[in-house]
Amino acid sequence: MRLLLDTHTFLWSISAPHKLPKNARKEIEDKQNQAFVSAVTFWEIAIKVRLGKLTLGSDENVVDAAISAGFLPIPLTPEEAASSSDLAENTHTDPFDRLLVWQAITRDLTMVSGDAEFRLFKLDGLKLLWK
Fold first, then answer.
1. In contact, 87 and 61? CB cutoff 8 Å
2. What is the pLDDT of residues 71-115, one digit of tens each?
3. Which residues contact 18 (CB under 8 A, 6 or more apart)?
4. String of DSSP letters for 3-60
């Protein structure tokens, strides 16, 4: 399985894996699976840290932490950014989440997230894993 970790999923994976549902944690830790972390997630973390909305418990660079955990960083391509407007409009307007959802759909990745609003994107083809 090819997984895309939502921002909170990534942060919990490296700092508090006990917060993840057992099934999600099992799939993330399964060496047969590939777990990806998007540049969008790193961007969101950087902004939240700068705004004081998030404090990281370590001085380690989040990209290095992702790689150390065995996760594969992926970029946001210009094509993904430009075509993200193809994602259906609904009540979920967070731009970071919408880009992550679009990357999961276009790259055929399973999104690992506890964000209940992501269920709104199942009709767009989003595969979701949490419980």
1. no
2. 999 999 999 999 988 887 776 778 899 999 999 999 999 999 999
3. none
4. EEE-HHHHHHHHH-GGGS-HHHHHHHH-TTSEEEEEHHHHHHHHHHHHTTS---SSSS
Q: Which of 64, 70, 59 is nearest to 42 (CA)?
A: 64
Place of tokens 């380690």: 60
∠ CA(99), CA(4), CA(59), 5° rounding? Answer: 90
- Give the dihedral sign, CA 55/26/116/68: positive
| 2-129, CATH topology level | Rossmann fold (3.40.50)
**Which residue in this structure is represented by tokens 């999104």?**
111
The three-state secondary structure class of 109 is coil
What pTM did the predictor assign? Answer: 0.92
